[in-house]
Write a structure and sequence with these properties.
The structure holds 2 protein chains of 2 kinds. Chain A is an alpha+beta fold. Chain A has 7 helices and 6 strands. By secondary structure, chain B is an alpha/beta fold. The chains are: A alpha+beta, B alpha/beta.
Chain lengths: 199, 1067
């Protein structure tokens, strides 16, 4: 069965932010929350590389391990989702996440950060698929509609791939072999234990 | 109460899923496995092919309550398709259009955020007027009535030229055309749009080198390039989806060379990055070419067959050896040599440029240098080659083609008497009436004032203006004032005019920049998603937009607003004579059909609304590299019928994939270079030598087709009776649109009437009618001219010009000579210019040509014989009618290299476009002591143009919240500036702006960069509170062009924004 994964090809990413605004558009994510964002290293200098980063839906997701109220869970497609009704906004998941994925609507030293929000792989949440409640809390459920995450679907240079992990890996390998440069899928082994330990 | 039309509540999920409750994962898995989506979606990423993704769409049809409408992204000229999902009139979702061969489902930040424009809250919601310093809501009726009355009063007092109609690259083709026609019927050439300040120098330079001033190949064709040479362009930010194609080429081995003063995000992907000093592009190109010529790497056979003047050109390049070029440009000699080797060894190569090349006092030299560079390598007219000029706005190509410009009528016909008569015929208005609309025939045929200097039209002393009075009313229709340089002068101009009208979805900076208390009207226009119509993307392909939603709030579509103004101003009947109006809105399909009937010069004649809609429906059937339709009803046609698509739509010309590619027959989209400059110059042949498209019955160069040429070749017999009637009627001045619909029998009868009215006698039966106008078979021709008729004499003279043996003698009778004034926008078609009233009917008849024959018969017959209607000529390395016939380097007006100013001085001061223009007066002053740094500007991916629309888009605005200046660490240190500090940046003309400093090595030492999308601050002052309530953009900032200084291209008045001087200091 399919195991959903993301991969960002730094040789192709041009930091155009389509993934960010597509996500905003699809889920009407409010100002201040970016479920997906661009990271650039060596900005403005030779060796400049950009990557689109969000929740990677890790195989052994550390956020699930640390959540004190167990509101985070993984679906049979490997997608990491959470229940905002249970979330207490403690922020542990943010510290545990190697990708900085969890976002919080409030910033305050005291009291709650508000309910955690993050990339859902466009798969909604625990509510009924496609329901208005699900939409309001988590955004659209494209997976239930038979579609893939919009960020990957609109990526301007096809740097960001999202879908069945085996297919993603095959595409990337073929691409690297053809162009003969720029291998090493950033974050892939951190999230999914590397190529030899696919789950 | 103010409501958004059609929005019933908050956004809701698009799909009401009835099954798959939580936990029913088997269904979901089964679905994913069986539908092929999981595979298809990512497989697309690998193959770039749209094939597999269609399965996904088929697998999950949208529920019936949701309609899917396809539009084209409203931002840049790549032309990405967007699926809009609309429920109860509200735009609720946006889906990728994988089947589009242009973007294949992809978007940049702007395209992916398009829907915000339909749900956003910062738009201008109703007509608003400034009354004693306060914004007041008014009705459309009141606004149109008051504006109209004021304009008519100004017209009465100062003449029609005192109203300036500034149009937009955001117009659809139909709106652009209607707007140009509107200005003509108002009686002025003071009409222009963004093309003036983005690619006017490209259009002028390239059109005068090759024949047309447009991108030659396509984004998809770049797949075939072995080298990609990018000059002054940053597609990773300005045209991100083009990088889909560029990176594909790179990954299959193409070398990417990026030349830019700034290490752009595109440069980050380059194989070779060249940091060049701003404004030294000609020198750099000549340096590279010097190496190429020195090594004999140029394509000699190509140059012999297809290029004029290359030997003269060699002498100029000889003055630019690598050492000298290195001194001028700052590029090391060894890198110049490396680049030369890269482009020479990796052919075919494409050369791409954007505003880094165009926005310069020598912009036309830059673009011609780039064109000649590609000619030398034999790269023009080749698959994988070409000059791929990326245009900026979504329809800037179309608005340029349709003449929203102060120096030409639609389709580059120019402003000559013949051009006006041509369009009067198409519009079905009386030429004399049209002439009476203008202050004088001279002003009717004189270039207007370009947008780059509209405010000089308002501010300059009347005595210095070549029009009766100053600009007194200014209309900004889809155009913001922060795109024009010299901010303080723009502001003064906005304050000086009596009447300021803004027609736009947002108030724009126009609403707040001027310190005015009255005389300002803001009219809410619908966005591009709120009207239907066609748009032409950078690669000359036309795409049809469906109307996604009705105009929001009280906004109205552009067509309707134009109709309202025309009604008020008294020329609605003429404007809409052959255009139906439904619910107050002129029908875009009818407008396009009128465009099809008149735009013969550039082949906008074949793209009927029906054909364009068919292409949109069958986007999936086009090959994504060749753009050729592979099956179904679009088989054999190129996507979007890229112009020229010759002849009337019924001729089914497939469009032209790559300009100037003689490897295909003309009927299949091939072309030689255009014979636009006559047949000889200074004793040299201007026609191609031994190069011609396959199937050409003339196996050599030939001049453009006129009726006389057809007759000389005996091909005139193939014209149908209707075509003959139209040709004769055009010559006789008695053309009526109804003639295009006549049956052959009726047409034959009418033709005899036309000929008899001009005393053309019938010859004896059986005698060969000289003109053969009435019958295909000359032996049965009942009418014609005998050899003793004066017509024969005229004919004989004309023939002489194009018999090969006489070409050398310098006869160019009836042909475009290219020797007129420096035409500035690819203009100078001089359509029928020779058909002046002094000529006899016979002379006029012979001179009816492929541009003025409204039947399309001349084009049809020429193409049937494998010939290009515009002839088969040579490209020009020497443009003898330009100030620098062969491009040379000239230092910017504000040069940082005073030592080079003496050797590479600018031009003498001169006059053009109704205004004086300064060069040496500005350059002779040395500002380098007080202003030691170079200032340049450019784009950010999140915003576009003046940015009013995109900064009002919350999803985009969030990503880039502050105006900044990029400063090199060494310059920052020298001026005591730390990262994030606020600085004052000032330029020699005393303007200054307060912006945040971003310390980065992206800019070289000595160069400061500003993004140009910001507005809403003016020299340190926040203008936010001046916006009408609820319309202030999410992000405001200083406009870069506030500090942009004086300087205009010598041919087109393109403004210099890429190279001036500045000083920075802590604020």
């Amino acid at each position: 069965m399919a195991r959903m994964k993301f991969l960002c090809d730094a040789e192709r990413c041009i930091e155009c932010n389509a993934c960010t605004t597509a996500c905003k558009n699809e889920h009407e994510v409010p100002w201040g929350i970016q479920r997906r964002r661009l990271i650039t290293v060596n900005d403005g200098e030779p060796g400049e590389k950009s990557l689109s980063v969000s929740c990677m839906h890790c195989t052994d997701a550390p956020c699930i391990a640390v959540c004190p109220v167990s509101c985070i869970y993984q679906t049979d497609l490997g997608i990491v989702l959470h229940d905002k009704d249970i979330c207490i906004g403690c922020g542990y998941c943010f510290y545990a996440c190697p990708f900085g994925a969890p976002q919080f609507p409030k910033a305050s030293n005291f009291g709650s950060r508000g309910k955690m929000d993050k990339c859902t792989f466009c798969a909604g949440g625990p509510e009924a698929d496609g329901s208005e409640t699900e939409y309001r809390k988590y955004g659209r459920n494209r997976i239930a509609e038979g579609k893939l995450p919009l960020c990957a679907e609109v990526c301007s240079t096809r740097a960001l791939l999202g879908g069945d992990g085996d297919v993603v890996a095959d595409i990337y390998k073929e691409r690297v072999i053809r162009r003969d440069y720029g291998s090493g899928a950033w974050g892939w082994s951190t999230a999914y234990y590397g190529p030899n330990r696919r789950s | 109460m103010l409501r958004r039309k059609g929005v019933s509540g908050p956004s809701r999920p698009r799909v009401q899923v009835t099954v798959t409750p939580q936990g029913a994962t088997v269904d979901r898995r089964t679905f994913l496995r069986n539908s092929g989506i999981a595979v298809g979606g990512v497989a697309l990423a690998s193959s770039f092919g749209p094939g597999t993704l269609r399965k996904a769409e088929a697998a999950q049809p949208a529920p019936s309550s949701i309609e899917r409408r396809k539009t084209i992204c409203p931002f840049c000229a790549v032309g990405c398709s967007i699926w809009a999902e609309v429920e109860n009139g509200a735009w609720i979702g946006q889906e990728p259009a994988f089947e589009s061969p242009v973007n294949m489902g992809t978007h940049c930040a702007k395209g992916a955020a398009t829907r915000e424009l339909a749900i956003g809250h910062r738009r201008l919601k109703y007509p608003t007027k400034l009354v004693q310093g306060r914004w007041q809501r008014v009705s459309w009726e009141q606004a149109i009535a008051e504006i109209g009355d004021r304009m008519l009063q100004i017209r009465e007092e100062s003449g029609p030229d005192s109203v300036y109609w500034l149009g937009s690259a955001k117009f659809s083709n139909e709106a652009a055309y209607l707007f140009r026609k509107f200005a003509a019927l108002w009686g002025t050439n003071n009409v222009d749009h963004q093309a003036r300040i983005c690619h006017s120098t490209t259009v002028a330079g390239v059109a005068n080198s090759f024949g047309y001033g447009a991108m030659t190949n396509s984004l998809n064709d770049i797949h075939n390039s072995k080298s990609i040479f990018l000059l002054g362009g940053n597609p990773a930010e300005a045209h991100p989806v083009s990088m889909l194609h560029l990176l594909r080429a790179k990954e299959t081995g193409a070398k990417l060379i990026v030349v830019d003063p700034r290490f752009t995000r595109t440069a980050a992907h380059a194989d070779e990055y060249v940091r060049v000093r701003t404004g030294t592009d000609v020198a750099f190109l000549w340096g590279v070419l010097w190496v190429i010529l020195e090594n004999g790497w140029e394509d000699k056979e190509y140059l012999r067959q297809r290029v004029f003047g290359f030997d003269d050109f060699r002498k100029v390049v000889a003055d630019y050896p690598p050492d000298e070029v290195s001194d001028i440009t700052g590029v090391p000699s060894d890198q110049i040599e490396r680049v030369a080797r890269l482009v020479a060894e990796n052919r075919p190569g494409t050369l791409i440029w954007c505003m880094g090349l165009t926005q310069s006092t020598i912009g036309n030299n830059n673009t011609r240098a780039a064109s000649i560079f590609q000619l030398a390598l034999g790269n023009v007219g080749r698959v994988g080659g070409g000059t791929n000029i990326f245009r900026g706005h979504d329809n800037v190509q179309g608005a340029t083609d349709l003449g929203v410009l102060c120096h030409t009528l639609p389709a580059y016909y120019g402003l000559t008497t013949g051009a006006w008569k041509h369009w009067a015929r198409v519009w079905d208005v009386d030429y004399e009436w049209l002439k009476g609309r203008f202050a004088s025939q001279d002003l009717m045929e004189a270039d207007g004032i370009p947008v780059s200097r509209w405010f000089d039209g308002a501010l300059e002393d009347k005595e210095n203006l070549e029009q009766p009075d100053n600009v007194r009313a200014m209309v900004f229709w889809g155009h913001a004032p922060n795109s024009q340089s010299r901010g303080p002068d723009v502001k003064a101009g906005l304050e000086k005019v009596d009447l300021l009208v803004v027609v736009d979805p947002v108030p724009t900076l126009s609403a707040v920049l001027a310190d005015r208390r009255d005389g300002v009207y803001l009219l809410p226009a619908g966005s591009t998603m709120e009207i239907a119509g066609s748009v032409t993307n950078s690669q000359r392909a036309l795409q049809w937009r469906e109307k996604v939603i009705e105009p929001m709030f009280e906004a109205k579509g552009d067509y309707e607003i134009m109709a309202l103004f025309a009604e008020k101003l008294g020329f609605a009947e003429q404007l809409l004579k052959h255009i139906a109006v439904e619910n107050g809105e002129p029908v875009p399909e009818d407008i396009l059909r009128e465009i099809n009937r008149g735009t013969w010069t550039i082949g906008y004649t074949g793209q009927s609304p029906e054909r364009l809609k068919l292409h949109m429906q069958h986007q999936d059937k086009f090959d994504t590299t060749t753009l050729l339709g592979m099956s179904g009803p679009v088989k054999g046609e190129y996507y979007g019928l890229p112009w020229p698509s010759w002849g009337p739509p019924e001729m089914k010309h497939p469009g032209t994939r790559n300009l100037w590619d003689p490897s295909l027959p003309v009927a299949a989209g091939g072309l030689p270079f255009r014979a636009r400059w006559g047949v000889e110059h200074d004793g040299h042949n201007l026609l191609a030598e031994g190069s011609f498209p396959p199937g050409s019955e003339i196996e050599d160069g030939y001049p453009e087709f006129t009726y006389a040429v057809l007759e000389k070749l005996g091909w005139h017999r193939e014209l149908t009776p209707r075509e003959r009637l139209v040709i004769a009627a055009v010559a006789a001045g008695s053309f009526e649109p109804g003639m295009l619909e006549l049956s052959d029998t009726t047409a034959g009868r009418r033709l005899r009437e036309v000929l008899e009215a001009h005393a053309v006698k019938s010859p004896p039966p059986g005698e060969n009618g000289h003109l053969g106008l009435t019958e295909g078979d000359s032996t049965s021709g009942p009418t014609g001219i005998t050899q003793t008729d004066p017509l024969a004499e005229a004919a004989a003279q004309t023939y002489e010009a194009f018999t090969p043996e006489n070409i050398e003698k310098g006869k160019s009778g009836g042909q475009d000579s290219g020797t007129g004034k420096a035409d500035s926008g690819g203009g100078g078609e001089h359509a029928g210019a020779k058909m002046s009233d002094g000529h006899s009917f016979a002379g006029k008849l012979l001179r009816v040509n492929w541009k003025t024959d409204l039947s399309g018969g001349i084009q049809r017959v020429a193409i049937a014989h494998g010939c290009a209607p515009f002839g088969n000529g040579k490209a020009r390395a020497v443009v003898w009618n330009f100030p620098d016939p062969i491009p040379v380097h000239r230092e910017p007006l504000y040069s940082p290299r005073r030592d080079l100013v003496a050797r590479y001085p600018t031009y003498k001061d001169r006059r053009k476009y109704r205004l004086p223009v300064l060069y040496e007066t500005v350059q002779k002053r040395d500002f380098t002591r007080d202003f030691p740094l170079i200032l340049t500007s450019g784009r950010l991916v999140e915003y576009e143009g003046g940015g009013d629309e995109t900064r009002s888009n919350m999803w985009l605005a969030e990503l880039q919240q502050e105006m900044f200046a990029e400063v090199n660490p060494e310059d920052a240190r020298a001026n005591g500036i730390a990262d994030g500090d606020m600085i004052w940046l000032s330029t020699p003309e005393t303007a200054r702006i307060r912006v945040a400093a971003m310390i980065t090595r992206r800019v070289g030492r000595g160069t400061v960069f500003l993004p140009f999308h910001f507005g809403g601050f003016y020299q340190g002052r926040d203008l936010s509170e001046k916006y009408p309530p609820g319309t202030v953009p999410y992000v405001v900032g200083e406009a870069a062009n506030t500090v942009a200084t004086y300087g205009y291209d010598v041919v087109t008045f393109m403004q210099e924004t890429k190279g001036t001087l500045c000083r920075i200091e802590p604020a």
